[in-house]
Design brief:
Blueprint (H helix, E strand, L loop, with lengths): L8 E3 L2 E3 L14 E4 L4 E6 L5 H8 L10 E3 L5 E3 L5 E3 L6 E2 L2 E2 L5 E6 L4 E5 L2 E3 L5 E2 L4 E5 L6 E5 L3 H18 L3 E4 H4 L13 H8 L9 E4 L26 E8 L2 E6 L10 E5 L3 E3 L1
Parallel strand pairs: 4-10, 4-16, 5-10
Antiparallel strand pairs: 1-2, 3-7, 5-6, 8-9, 11-12, 11-15, 12-13, 14-15, 17-18, 17-21, 18-19, 19-20
Bound molecules: zinc ion.
């Protein structure tokens, strides 16, 4: 955990450090009236940098905004006071409510979102190419085929977690939801690379920490290196449905810690192909 984040507080709907110093605030005019607080909505920016997201949200004639943008290193910039409506949800509905902007605080995480494979790189919709080590191949919960998604760094997830806990507490929010939940089909953020189940249960006080658990979607060989040319660590594959935690990644391969006993082997660690893992 980033130590300084434990000291977050909210003063007059602005995010501050423990000593009362405000976090960076870039005033954004794309706002509405007062929120009737019910939910926290998580988004990705589908862009390359925090700066590009902030500039777009704060542009004169913009039609979108969010309360905060969290950079990949965990830096938080606030754009809209937490009691004012920001324009992050668009056409949306959840649990009998429509137009979730009026009922929610929106957090934007800097992330390229969905990517397309081009040669040995992955390309974002805005043209930037990403290394395979930044990408995880997963099936979106509202879809049926595997695609590439940019991963979320731990620093960013921890900042989001600390801020979310504070917001839920301060504004008595009922739940944490994704843009993909309130606008399915139209939106896919924060996407399958975001550990929503663990994040939600941690923020809502139902678990102790974020972990990054996945399950195997088929029988999967576990190897000594990131490639099918490397020898198997054990002769029998991991059964379909085995729980693992991702520790590292290289290309499409993931170095995993197997969290259950497989064929009498405990504490197995090794490389598996990432295509056959999905969020638990
Ligand atoms: Zn969104």
């Amino acid at each position: 955990m980033a130590g300084n984040l434990r000291e977050l507080k909210i003063i007059d709907h602005r995010l501050c450090k423990g000593d009362g110093t405000p976090y960076p605030f870039k005033a954004c005019n794309n706002t509405g009236g007062l929120i009737e607080h019910k939910y926290l909505v998580i988004h990705y920016t589908a862009g390359p940098t925090a700066k590009s997201a902030i500039n777009s949200f704060c542009s004169e004639n913009g039609n979108a905004s969010a309360h905060v943008v969290i950079d990949r290193n965990g830096e938080i910039t606030q754009l809209v006071p937490f009691n004012r409506v920001a324009w992050h949800a668009g056409i949306s509905s959840w649990d009998g409510l429509t137009g979730l902007n009026n009922y929610s605080i929106g957090i934007e995480l800097v992330n390229a979102g969905r990517l397309e494979k081009v040669g040995d790189k992955w390309r974002a919709w805005f043209g930037k190419l990403y290394d395979p080590s930044d990408i995880i191949e997963l099936i979106h919960k509202n879809e049926t085929t595997v695609t590439g998604w940019q991963t979320y760094p731990q620093e960013q997830l921890e900042a989001a977690l600390e801020l979310s806990k504070l917001l839920v507490q301060e504004y008595h929010l009922l739940d944490v939801i994704g843009h993909e939940d309130i606008a399915p089909g139209r939106k896919s953020d924060p996407g399958p690379a975001f550990p929503m189940n663990n994040f939600r249960s941690t923020v809502m006080g139902r678990a102790d920490d974020i972990d990054v658990q996945f399950i195997t979607t088929t029988e999967l060989n576990i190897r000594t290196g990131p490639g099918s040319e490397f020898p198997k660590i054990i002769e029998t594959p991991l059964p379909s449905g085995t729980t693992v935690e991702i520790i590292n990644s290289k290309g499409s391969w993931r170095f995993v810690d197997v969290l259950e006993k497989v064929n009498d082997a405990m504490d197995l660690q090794g490389w598996v192909h990432g295509r056959y893992l999905r969020r638990k």
